[in-house]
Every structure is written in structure tokens, then in C-alpha cells.
């Protein structure tokens, strides 16, 4: 609390004389005005209080006399005893008088037996109470020493008790100021969010969006702020900015149907546009060159696969429950992003559901929406439904490999390059080979309108596996490295020779 209030004061001082937007100008006033509480906390607390109040040690020296004394006794108990011993030696005139400690008597005063008579007669016997006589020594205590002893023993506990009490009183003092402290917290949060967003806007080249009552959604060169940052941090390629034209005409829907290869950037595109809407409406700049948005009442998103088995929902069930919520609730001011709906069931079921969902979003909900799918059949709807457009993410094919351009363009994709992406992901060669022949057969079957199943039945079952069975290798000539390795006698080498041998082997590898 003390550090935060001190920082708040420092921030207010740094801002003095700076012109601020109205919201922050108002917040500025709440940063200061805690002088009394700060003075109290400054005086009461050590510079770096421990994390836990439990063990004490957070109240500063000089704040509470009782606490200072308790601590002094605890820490300097022996010093206090030494002082007392000097006093008693002077008072009795017995220079050899000692204060000692053992577990039976605790603290006691000890003189040699020669002083016994003097110690036990007036006036000294009024102060010194006899405890024990041994062969050579007499032992005494005093009321003062007994009290001191109890106090030393209790000093630690006492210090802790006092600190707890002070802690409560400090809490009380803070609570008295609670409403004002909350205002300061609120003001700090206001500055924090605003400055962080301003910082991002400047550093990452964001733009100021136009937000109005229209049903526009026109983004020029939009980016996904998180993916962009991740790419920057990995030192990977630059993030490819993409436009989004989703402005609804009249009371029509505006839906972009996004097809394109796996890994092309469909999901990224969907989310970046939803994020831009969210950022714009919270008053932030947005990661784009320009952005014009009509107010969005709700953002609905249906992305990713998850299940909720404990609540009796399978993966597909979750997907459908979420889709149902969107279809039942979205109105013509909603922004909807649907990522690959209908994937968790049989192809034709999924396609049918996606198809009907798109029609409903278009005709009934009339939303602005982005719809990513691998059902290329859906792209036919763009021609039929007003306000539904096709877009695709571009890739290039190069030597049988796919190169992802991450560029969203008008048009429809005709394939998803799933097998190529599976290969990139490291699926075993035979699996990829086999998948290719199954895919070819399926596509050929579709063209010939014959049953794809029959075609797959015709595929040579073991062809892929056969080609990749490990070929017995011809015994190869031993390499230079192997020859040299065979010559080495590890048990007879010094560490230096061993190291040299490693260098030699490494050198052999070089050629
Ligand atoms: N505009 C972009 N610029 C640069 N890199 C991008 C861009 N969009 C996506 N990427 C990169 O491509 C990866 C895959 O993107 P994304 O998950 O959006 O693909 P997808 O089309 O949804 O694929 P799938 O069909 O497999 O779900 C991202 O993790 C990101 O690293
Ligand atoms: Mg995706």
C-alpha cells in the first residue's frame, strides 16, 4: 500500500503540467492526497517489509517505544544483563560479582563464598535474595533480575504481539481511507491500461479506428496482435496484413466464407478481426492501417475442438451446443466468427449442418460474420446468397511442396493440401504415401461418380508398406571415423589424448 501510494504520487508529479485527455485528467486528481496515510505508513514500516506478517519484523525502529524495548531485550538480552552486573558490582563493592545462567536456576548472581556474610546482612540482603550455597560460591537473585529474566524470555513473543497489534491499527488506518484508496487504484488502472495501449499503438503502428452507428466492417491491412508479436520474437517472417470487407448492405447479412489450405491462416484471420472489433470498442487503437466499424452488440465465436465429458458432452455435442447458442442469440448487430463448424461428425452430416447454419446466419440472424471451412462445396452458396462472399488464403505450390503466403484474397479454394501439411508435421512416409493413393482414388471416384469405396477396395492394400520395407543394406566400407574409433584404446589414454582424439574424429567428419 505504501509503495503503491508513493508510486501514485510520483506518477502525478511526473504528469504535472502535462495536458491529458478528459478521462485521464479526471483520474489524475485521484492519484494524490494520501499525505497523512503515507506519512503514517512511512514512519511505521521498514523499507522492505517481509512477505508474511506472521513472523514480524515489518515495523520500523523508532515507531513504537514499547516495541523497541521488547526488541532490544530480545536481541541484546545479554548486553542488558552485563550492564546490570556492572551496576551490582558497584552497588555491593564486590568486583568479582557475576550474573550467570543455568537451566535449573535461570539467571542468578554469584559471588565467592568470602562475600557471603556481607551479601547476607543489611543493607544488601534487602536487595539480594539468597538462592543457593555451593562449596565455593553463594548465589542470589533480585526482584529486578527475576523480572528482567521473564521479560527476556517473553520479549520475543511480546515484540511479535506488539507488531500484530500495530499491524491491525495500520490496517484500520488504511480501511478508514478505503474509498479514497480505491479511487486511486481505479485511477492507476486507468492510466495503466491507457498508457499500455498507447504504447502498443505507437510501437506497433496501430491506427485509430472509426466507430459509428453503421453496420460497416472495413479493415485495411489488419493484423493479429499476438501472432504478430510471436513472429517478431521468434525472429520469423513478417506478419502478412489482410483486409476485411464485411460491411453489411441495407439490412442484409455480410458473411465471408473463407476456404483455404490447412495452416494457411484462416483461424488467425477470423480472430484478428474479432480482436480488432473488441479493441476498437474498448477505445483502443487497432492493429490495422485503417478500420471503420459499425457498433457491434456481441461477438460470438465458435473455435477449436473441446469436450466436457464430466458434464456429459462429447466433442461434437459441445460444438453443437455452442452453435445453437449463436443461432438463437445473434442479432443483426452481432459479429460472428465460426471456425470449421461441423467437423466432429461424418462428412455429409457436417457439411449439411454447416450449410444450414450459414443460411440461417444469413437469412435470419443477418450478422456480420466470418466462416472458415474446409467444405469447399459451401462456396457455391456465395453465388446464391446476397452478402455472402468467398475468400481464400493463398498458397503457392513449389516442387510438390506448399508455400504459405498468408494472403487473404477473393475467391474459393479447391483443395486443402491436408496431406502435404500432414507431411510437414512429420507423419511417417508410408502413411503419407498411402494417404496420397487413397485421396487420388477418392477424387477419381468422385469424378467418375462411382462408389469411392469400391475404388479403395481396388487399391493394392500393401503397396505403400511394401515400398518402404527396410531394404537389407549391402555391407558398407567402414568410414574413416569408424576406422579411427576402432583403433582407440580408451583405457590407455590420458584425458588430454582423449580430448585430442575427439578433435581428430571431428576433423575426419569435416571432409
Ligand atoms: N497473416 C499471417 N502472417 C504470417 N503468419 C501467419 C499469418 N496467419 C497465420 N500465420 C501463421 O500460420 C499459422 C497457422 O495459421 P492458422 O491456424 O490460422 O491456419 P488455418 O488456416 O486455420 O489452418 P487449419 O485449417 O489447419 O486450421 C499460425 O500459427 C501463424 O504462425
Ligand atoms: Mg484453423
Structure, briefly:
This protein is an alpha/beta fold and 511 residues long. It has helices at residues 2-15, 22-28, 35-44, 65-92, 116-119, 143-176, 178-203, 225-234, 266-281, 315-329, 347-365, 381-384, 418-424, 429-448, 452-458, 463-467, 480-487, 495-510; strands spanning 98-102, 106-112, 129-133, 137-141, 210-212, 217-222, 242-245, 254-259, 290-294, 299-302, 335-339, 368-372, 388-398, 401-410.
The small molecules bound here are: adenosine-5'-triphosphate, magnesium ion
Find the CATH topology of the domain at 207-424: Rossmann fold
- How many DSSP E strands? 14
**What's the CATH architecture name of the domain at 207-424?**
3-Layer(aba) Sandwich
- End-to-end distance, in Å? 67 Å
Helix content: 40-55%
Gyration radius, to the nearest Å? 41 Å
If helices are DSSP runs of H or I spanning 4 or more residues, what is the number of helices? Answer: 18
Largest sheet: 6 strands, mixed
Q: Report the sheet-strand fraction.
A: 15-25%
Keywords: ATP-binding, DNA damage, DNA repair, DNA-binding, Nucleotide-binding
Organism: Salipiger mucosus DSM 16094
InterPro entries: DNA_mismatch_repair_MutS_C, DNA_mismatch_repair_MutS_clamp, DNA_mismatch_repair_MutS_core, DNA_mismatch_repair_MutS_sf, MutS, P-loop_NTPase
GO molecular function, one term: ATP binding
Amino acid at each position: 500500500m505504501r509503495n503503491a501510494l508513493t508510486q501514485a504520487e510520483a506518477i502525478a508529479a511526473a504528469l504535472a503540467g502535462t495536458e491529458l485527455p478528459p478521462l485521464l485528467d479526471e483520474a489524475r486528481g485521484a492519484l494524490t492526497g494520501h499525505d497523512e496515510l503515507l506519512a503514517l505508513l512511512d514512519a511505521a514500516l521498514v523499507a522492505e517489509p517481509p512477505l508474511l506478517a506472521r513472523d514480524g519484523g515489518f515495523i520500523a525502529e523508532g515507531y513504537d517505544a514499547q516495541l523497541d524495548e521488547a526488541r532490544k531485550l530480545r536481541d541484546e538480552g545479554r548486553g542488558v544483563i552485563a550492564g546490570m552486573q556492572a551496576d551490582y558490582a558497584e552497588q555491593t563493592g564486590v568486583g568479582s560479582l557475576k550474573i550467570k545462567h543455568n537451566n535449573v536456576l535461570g539467571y542468578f548472581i554469584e559471588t565467592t563464598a568470602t562475600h557471603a556474610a556481607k551479601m547476607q546482612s543489611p543493607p544488601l540482603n534487602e536487595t539480594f535474595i539468597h538462592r543457593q550455597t555451593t562449596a565455593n560460591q553463594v548465589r542470589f537473585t533480585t526482584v529486578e533480575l527475576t523480572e528482567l529474566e521473564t521479560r527476556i524470555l517473553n520479549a520475543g513473543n511480546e515484540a511479535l504481539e506488539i507488531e500484530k497489534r500495530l499491524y491491525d491499527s495500520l490496517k484500520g488506518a488504511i480501511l478508514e481511507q478505503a474509498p479514497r484508496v480505491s479511487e486511486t487504484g481505479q485511477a492507476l488502472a486507468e492510466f495503466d491500461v491507457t498508457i499500455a495501449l498507447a504504447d502498443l499503438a505507437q510501437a506497433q503502428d496501430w491506427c485509430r479506428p472509426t466507430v459509428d452507428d453503421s453496420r460497416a466492417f472495413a479493415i485495411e491491412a489488419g493484423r493479429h496482435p499476438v501472432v504478430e508479436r510471436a513472429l517478431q520474437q521468434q525472429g520469423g517472417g513478417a506478419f502478412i496484413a489482410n483486409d476485411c470487407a464485411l460491411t453489411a448492405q441495407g439490412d442484409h447479412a455480410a458473411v465471408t466464407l473463407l476456404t483455404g489450405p490447412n495452416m494457411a491462416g484462416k483461424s488467425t484471420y477470423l480472430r484478428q478481426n474479432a480482436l480488432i472489433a473488441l479493441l476498437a470498442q474498448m477505445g483502443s487503437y487497432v492493429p490495422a492501417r485503417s478500420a471503420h466499424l459499425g457498433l457491434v452488440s456481441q461477438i460470438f465465436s465458435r473455435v477449436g475442438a473441446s469436450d466436457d465429458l464430466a458434464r456429459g458432452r462429447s466433442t461434437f455435442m459441445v460444438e453443437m451446443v455452442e452453435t445453437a447458442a449463436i443461432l438463437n442469440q445473434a442479432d443483426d448487430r452481432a459479429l460472428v466468427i465460426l471456425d470449421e463448424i461441423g467437423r466432429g461428425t461424418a462428412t455429409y452430416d457436417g457439411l449439411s449442418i454447416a450449410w444450414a447454419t450459414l443460411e440461417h446466419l444469413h437469412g435470419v440472424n443477418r450478422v456480420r460474420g466470418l466462416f472458415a471451412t474446409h467444405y469447399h462445396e459451401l462456396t457455391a452458396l456465395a453465388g446464391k446468397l446476397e452478402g455472402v462472399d468467398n475468400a481464400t488464403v493463398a498458397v503457392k505450390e513449389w516442387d510438390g511442396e506448399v508455400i504459405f503466403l498468408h494472403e487473404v484474397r477473393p475467391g474459393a479454394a479447391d483443395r486443402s493440401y491436408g496431406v502435404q501439411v500432414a507431411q510437414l508435421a512429420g507423419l511417417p512416409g508410408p502413411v503419407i504415401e498411402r494417404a496420397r493413393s487413397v485421396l487420388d482414388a477418392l477424387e477419381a471416384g468422385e469424378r467418375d461418380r462411382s462408389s469411392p469405396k469400391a475404388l479403395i477396395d481396388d487399391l493394392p492394400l500393401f503397396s505403400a508398406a511394401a515400398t518402404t520395407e527396410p531394404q537389407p543394406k549391402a555391407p558398407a566400407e567402414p568410414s574413416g571415423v569408424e576406422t579411427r574409433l576402432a583403433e582407440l584404446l580408451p583405457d590407455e589414454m590420458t584425458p588430454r589424448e582423449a580430448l585430442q582424439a575427439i578433435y581428430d574424429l571431428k576433423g575426419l567428419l569435416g571432409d
